[in-house]
């Protein structure tokens, strides 16, 4: 019996990936890494420092950066990124998601955010969604990122629910793996081939409704 939802943020509630991409692209140019859409894709759901490492590893230059130099690049990216996300408004909530969150709230479901982003509180506030959620998992308090289940296990704690009572919503395969490993029901949003490990798959946020979920859980 489902009693709560654990939401990934980027790609599920808002398309912040486009802003991450713009901000990382500047850093990539600076370190001699060719920016491609597949590089951008590989950074989805990956933590800030791990994303930087992927960009550095793809550089044509032989870089031996100190920890301090890496921290500086990551901070610079985050400054670019924050300048972009302060322009977010409720209009930037992905199609159907405000309706879904609002109806889940009205129907007494608990909700938590399971995002790798340290900027999640700021983004939720920009989108005027903060009050719907029982809490936001603090990614800095985690030992392991997705695909490790830790972040989803913490979200169930925040909602005071058993994992079997939680549906996790994700757009990335690493996130689906994490939800499945947490013993929750995984709901994938995106390409069915890519997200084939998910228990429920919807092509876009628009088809994520309580009615569709109730129907598909029976099958
Ligand atoms: P920050 P999610 C992830 O969000 C993004 O997909 C990923 O591209 C980003 O690097 C990561 O958050 C960390 O974000 O730099 O803001 O801490 O998909 O887990 O909601
Ligand atoms: Mg995501």
From TrEMBL:
Catalytic reactions on record: beta-D-glucose 1-phosphate = beta-D-glucose 6-phosphate
Keyword 4Fe-4S attached: no
Cofactor note: Binds 2 magnesium ions per subunit.
Sorted UniProt keywords: Carbohydrate metabolism, Isomerase, Magnesium, Metal-binding, Phosphoprotein
Site, Important for catalytic activity and assists the phosphoryl transfer reaction to Asp8 by balancing charge and orienting the reacting groups: residue positions: 115, 146
Active site: 8 (nucleophile), 10 (proton donor/acceptor)
E.C. designation(s): 5.4.2.6
Cofactor requirements of the protein: Mg(2+)
Residues annotated as binding Mg(2+): 8, 10, 170-171
Matching SUPFAM superfamilies: HAD-like
An annotated Gene Ontology molecular function: beta-phosphoglucomutase activity
Assigned protein family: Belongs to the HAD-like hydrolase superfamily. CbbY/CbbZ/Gph/YieH family.
Protein name: Beta-phosphoglucomutase
Biological source species: Leuconostoc citreum (strain KM20)
